[in-house]
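Standup notes
- HV: blocked on the assembly model, inputs below
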Amino acid sequence: MGEAYGQLMSKMKEIETVGQIQGLLGWDQEVMMPPKAGPLRAEQLAWLSRTSHSMMVETEMGEVLSAAEEEGADDEITAANLRLIRDAYDKATKKPADFVERFARHKSKSIRSWAEAREKDDFSIFRDDLAEMIDLNRELAEYLGYDDNPYDALLDIYESGLCVAQVDPLFQGLRESLVPLIAAVGECESPDMSWVEASNWGEDAQAQLSHGISAAVGFDFDAGRRDKSTHPFCGGANPDDVRWTTRYDENEPFGSLYGSLHETGHGLYEQGRPRQLDFQPSGHANGLGVHESQSRLWENQVGRSLAFSEWAIPHWSKHFPENMEGVTGEMLWRSVNLIEPSLIRVEADEATYNIHIMIRYEIEKQLINGELEIDDLPDAWDDMYEQYLGVRSPDRKQGVLQDIHWSMGAFGYFPTYTLGNLYSAQLLAAARSDLESEQTLEEMWAVGNFAPLLDWMRSNVHERGSISTPADLIKEATGQPPSPQPFIDYLRNKVERLYNVTV
Amino acid sequence: MGEAYGQLMSKMKEIETVGQIQGLLGWDQEVMMPPKAGPLRAEQLAWLSRTSHSMMVETEMGEVLSAAEEEGADDEITAANLRLIRDAYDKATKKPADFVERFARHKSKSIRSWAEAREKDDFSIFRDDLAEMIDLNRELAEYLGYDDNPYDALLDIYESGLCVAQVDPLFQGLRESLVPLIAAVGECESPDMSWVEASNWGEDAQAQLSHGISAAVGFDFDAGRRDKSTHPFCGGANPDDVRWTTRYDENEPFGSLYGSLHETGHGLYEQGRPRQLDFQPSGHANGLGVHESQSRLWENQVGRSLAFSEWAIPHWSKHFPENMEGVTGEMLWRSVNLIEPSLIRVEADEATYNIHIMIRYEIEKQLINGELEIDDLPDAWDDMYEQYLGVRSPDRKQGVLQDIHWSMGAFGYFPTYTLGNLYSAQLLAAARSDLESEQTLEEMWAVGNFAPLLDWMRSNVHERGSISTPADLIKEATGQPPSPQPFIDYLRNKVERLYNVTV
């Protein structure tokens, strides 16, 4: 190890330590903090963020980084650390300080006007702030730099190396296959949800069910926690301290359980990070898309399978003996797989979800490139929903005002959700061909044997940290570059079994 | 405000912010942290502590502080801030870095050997480490400096300005009055505890009782929390985020409720700090003795009064309807005031508690001054217990090995517990003479009217922060320097009413 590289890594350890503390305070803010503590908590978080930022952008960091790059890399870990630190350093230093401040100030302002606009169902309240946020994102793209498309610079923030040339064909493939599939399902009869609607689903029993199922698929509660919060998330400090949350609705139990499985998936990834790379950038989980692949895997590919439903029935019955009387694994499976076009992204099913994302992606691309005017946005949104999902919002709050992301200045973030779905199907297909010699994965899940799949993800994804770029990680793990095909195949197969529909 | 003073205060704001974060992480560690997260949490806390320490001891801090002192102080706040920062700076810089490290290393070692010694009931396991800890404390006293007695330097760490010349007469007064009082009570019949022992006291109901009573005396749960932990404490980040804990024993409900009232007292003090002095040293709560006065006030002077017991009966009955059948306010009052010499400090009652402390104070003074040899310590401990409390430990673990403090290197800490008891009685007497024109305080408490007393503490103690030294604060609030007499009067009066004993 070179001398400069050693210095660099000890600087990174400090920055990482601050990040762990930020993770804990962020969790506490959502889960534990008393209401009046908000303003001083903001001071604490601002100090941590200033401290971490100045450690990253100080002149000495740039010098040590350059010196370490001069020393060169003899192995993939060193090369990955240098690549990741260079990327983070460039992203942090390319933005002028006054821009960072303008952006942060405008973000606070536009989150407020978005919330007001949504509450009053009036896009005009948010219009000017959104227009300015788009301008700020264009300015940001110029600072960060790009080859072809300014939107590429924004995509790259959330998933390193992602660009329009990569994403366009993925969404095109999805659109061509999913839109007719969803339309065909729309002609079919919906599954029987009466057993769900007829009962009350107590919060304590839901919590125990979620906890038990999370532990059964492999979440280590000695290195993490489950709590309740308004917006479910997975956070915490490090692989020994992973904290996920859920929320409860006593009218229906799926939101909490499948939310828990989703966050468990994120949590399993964090707990599976390569511990010999603690405090090194290459030891971090990979981009947002790969992270989402792990949450979607356990939530959907595993959790919404027939085998899983059959395995889970005794767990359900233990916590809800009366409600579950006469409910079979197949009834449960059909109920958790209701496919139905709807207006709200966060409530969408596996099939329609990606169409919600595709619409946002197309709109973002056009907004950033000046191909869509702000005043045409609300109707363009509704038109695309009608075109691709066959539904049209009766108001703005269920239309263009539904998501917080743009008010926060996060353009380029949405596509990572769909990448997660695509990656999860592609990874599962690869795991299947490695593991299914004597038993299918479904046969393992039916008896609660999730370890082989988790172990495969551990070796091929979790323990690889950020050593490769996201796209390379997928290629190394599956032998193929990212593709929409495994997801399309998975969904076609599922819809055929559920609705007897072939498209 | 001078320029240097402004710089100084913004440095202090940063240090204070780090302290708030440390407070949160410390709370989390005891209350929320999953078991495996310990080692990396230690890294986070070590980074915060290093960062805060280097901000305090950096050369620039010394220069800015001197320059601010040159500018001078026009008001009591500025004067107090300068005095407190000078004190903290001197304490931080007088110790050589290698000493700080040796001390920290030896502390870890001797906490372990103390724990082992206590578990195996074998003083010899701890002997050498304790001897070295005493030497380290003598060395520390030399670095910090003192006028008369090296032990003064150690007392001053925990309560600014405290010294043997102040503490000796307090303990002498206490000893002369309490020892015969306790002996006289020993001749009397014990109160009836059968109603307590006959019932099971469910944890949830205990938690609700504690919560309700804490809120009733004035704790603001919008600016704080109650949780469960192995060792009860009051911590958190700042006056908007005060977090106290308790523990539960289903065999008896007093430990939890009175522990809760104790921590509530600490919490009320924190919540009552002067908010215009946020981030300034003068806005902090005063020394440990004053802090303990507030916890003891609500736990004992208020909480163990007959009036409080009578007011509390409906709360008890609400949460424990069956257990409380036929229990009167007077029965409750007698049960929570059992006076009985015992071996264990943390379980001691109001009267005997201070004798436990007095014994430790005398022993510490002798150990630091070389008047007591380490090998004579265990028997000296037992002899003093026999002399003053009439009880002798059958083993070492209930004797000299019972407390963790010395293994942590905390010599000079114990006396602040008794100071708290003395201050609380002296403050209550002063509040009484200010407030009792139409009603006695007891008449107010009997109907749950705790606001007048809390308001008096707010104005005379809480809102005064650390503007005055602890001894001056007591003098300003009560018109008298710290004295044991109000506490002795209070206890004599109580014992007379409880046991019909006059000494």
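- HV (later): unblocked. Chain A touches chain B through 34 residues (CB under 8 Å). Residues 1-94 of chain A form one domain.
- Next: hand off to the docking folks.
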